[in-house]
Task: inverse folding
């Protein structure tokens, strides 16, 4: 005989109504405890999963915010650098234009001054006006 058969024979021959009630109560209590343990385990697993999901979502949101702030900062830096480059280019172009204008004006003034320094005599003007200047 196996152990289970022995237990079954003992229970069959020695069972009284009081023992049946005790066995039923014990079985019900064991089933209730098992169900409660399973439900608690499921609730704990669900709570852990929810907490993990919330933590992951929060971490992802924090990373997204950090990346967004970094991208915004990079965009600001790019805009500032672009503005500085444009300002520098404009200043250089204006400086070159001013230097060219001043150089041309100075050259014209020097040439005009040089022309003005020479005053032809009356005889030279008469020859020039009559077209005889080439003959000199």
Result:
């Amino acid at each position: 005989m196996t152990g289970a058969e022995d237990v079954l024979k003992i229970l069959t021959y020695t069972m009284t109504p009081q023992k049946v009630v005790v066995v039923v109560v014990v079985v019900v209590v064991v089933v209730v405890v098992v169900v409660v343990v399973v439900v608690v385990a499921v609730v704990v697993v669900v709570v852990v999963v929810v907490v993990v999901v919330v933590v992951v979502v929060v971490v992802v949101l924090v990373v997204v915010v950090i990346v967004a702030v970094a991208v915004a900062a990079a965009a600001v830096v790019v805009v500032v650098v672009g503005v500085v480059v444009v300002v520098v280019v404009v200043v250089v172009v204006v400086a070159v234009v001013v230097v060219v204008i001043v150089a041309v004006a100075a050259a014209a003034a020097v040439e005009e001054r040089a022309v003005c320094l020479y005053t032809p005599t009356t005889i030279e003007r008469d020859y020039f006006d009559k077209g005889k200047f080439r003959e000199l």
User: Anything to note?
Assistant: The chain has one domain: 3-135. Residues 17-117 form the longest helix (101 residues). Residues 3 and 87 are 97 Å apart (CA to CA).
